[in-house]
């Protein structure tokens, strides 16, 4: 049974930072690609960052240079370090694995 649980969301002022984590069970983070998406009410879910099984990383243009995706293989966790946040980053953030399993999401609010 695969489970992905996001944490680390919250409220922060513009220019601040947050670090999201996605803890996986029943799934080995190190072996497969994973990604972060976000969604604002009334808008489509959009990709934020992804990391392939070979370590290749990609970012959405809107977050390039501000967000950093990484894996903590020892803890079986996917992370997203978000720096220099702005109000347009406010959304529910989700992690997803290669088999289209999604977490429940964590709210990020930037004011």
Rounded average pLDDT: 96
Q: Order of helices and strands, N to C?
A: EEEEEEEEEE
Strand content: over 45%
Number of helical regions: 0
Helix content: under 10%
Q: Per the principal axes of the C-alpha atoms, what is the gross shape?
A: globular
The secondary structure category is: mainly beta
Q: How is the main sheet built?
A: 6 strands, mixed
- The side-by-side strand order for the widest beta sheet comes to 2-10-9-4-5-6
Query: How far do the termini sit from each other?
Result: 37 Å
DSSP, total strands: 10
Pick out the low-confidence regions.
none
Oligomer: single chain
CA-atom Rg in angstroms = 13 Å
Task: Provide an overview of this structure.
With 111 residues, this protein is mainly beta. The protein is 0% helix and 50% strand. The strands form 2 sheets. A 6-stranded mixed sheet has the order 2-10-9-4-5-6, with no helix packed on it. It has a 4-stranded antiparallel sheet with strand order 1-3-8-7, with no helix packed on it. Strand 7 and strand 8 (77-82) form a beta hairpin.
Sum up the structure in keywords.
10 strands; mainly beta; six-stranded mixed β-sheet; globular; four-stranded antiparallel β-sheet; 111 residues
Describe the SSE topology.
Layout lengths: L2 E5 L2 E3 L5 E8 L8 E6 L6 E6 L5 E3 L7 E6 L4 E6 L8 E7 L8 E5 L1
Parallel strand pairs: 2-10
Antiparallel strand pairs: 1-3, 3-8, 4-5, 4-9, 5-6, 7-8, 9-10
